[in-house]
Amino acid sequence: MSKSHKVWVSRPLFPEVLEHLARYVEVQAETSERKHTAAELREKLAGVDGAIIGLSDRIDGAVIAGNRRLRAIANLAVGYNNLDVPALTAAGIFATNTPDVLNETTADYAWALLLAAARRVSSAERWLRAGNWRGGMRFDDWLGVDVHGRTLGILGMGRIGQAIARRAYGFGMPVLYHNRSRLPVAIEHDCRATWVEKAELLRRADHLMLVLPYSAQSHHAIGAAELALMKPTAVLVNIARGGIVDDAALAVALREGRLAAAGLDVFEGEPAVHALLRELDNAVLSPHLASASADTRRAMAQLAADNLLAALGHGPDAGHPPS
Ligand code: DGY
């Protein structure tokens, strides 16, 4: 059967998802993972009707300039700060993302980072693996900070923030949150969460999770001034986007003990990580893995493929516009 549409997949994907795509469209899929330059993206996208791309692929007006063929871009992520949506819209290119399927898995990971950072799991493991556990251990060594019963702060109470908040009940933690606007009362009840102003959130939270989308408005939402409001016993978790935190200011606060610890899955300018953060034992660092469970990554890939097919007119749905 001759296929009317051609799509490019910018990174290796689950074979079954590629096979599903290939039933409808001609597929050209990369077999190794790497960041593409703007020139490479321009060239790849020039010859296709649609593409599945990842967060490291930045699609802006310059990349799509003069492209008369491209109809749809499916982002393999819920966040889409790598897409210039106004430029895509102006060019008549449909942009889609992968909301909802990753909420619970990402919330699990936020808790994993909070617990690991508060209880010093990574540094203790490094110490043990280095062969340091020989004799007895001091009773007052490796002391962490408690998580249960403390007040959890959530900055950015969207769908993932709400999934994080619902887990707090099991830890006996009251939840404070800040969004630009309050959630409907029914959702606040469901999450047992109370809206407060941002400064109050920073002052009162025993531990703080960052879950807000990245934009010019949220750039450095947590910088030196905000860190100064936080408790020195607090743990900061960032599973959102690197640019939301001023990593240099965070590293200094961690080094000076103005913050107990941090659990970070995202970094300014990733894959580069601030040199001081890499040195600090009270920072738990991971390479943007929050949605990386086998089931969720499969669901994200499948949703991205279905979105792309729908946008090209091959599926029953209209596709997911970024939401
Ligand atoms: C997202 O979906 O935005 C995550 O950051 C990628 O795992």
From TrEMBL:
CDD domains for this protein: GDH (cd05301)
SUPFAM superfamilies xref list: Formate/glycerate dehydrogenase catalytic domain-like, NAD(P)-binding Rossmann-fold domains
Family: Belongs to the D-isomer specific 2-hydroxyacid dehydrogenase family.
Keyword terms of this UniProt record: NAD, Oxidoreductase
Protein name: 2-hydroxyacid dehydrogenase
Entry-linked InterPro entries: D-isomer_2-hydroxyacid_DH (IPR050223), D-isomer_2_OHA_DH_cat_dom (IPR006139), D-isomer_DH_CS (IPR029753), D-isomer_DH_CS1 (IPR029752), D-isomer_DH_NAD-bd (IPR006140), NAD(P)-bd_dom_sf (IPR036291)
Ranges for domain D-isomer specific 2-hydroxyacid dehydrogenase catalytic: 9-316
Source organism, top-level taxon: Bacteria
Record domain D-isomer specific 2-hydroxyacid dehydrogenase NAD-binding: where: 112-290
Signal peptide (residue range): none
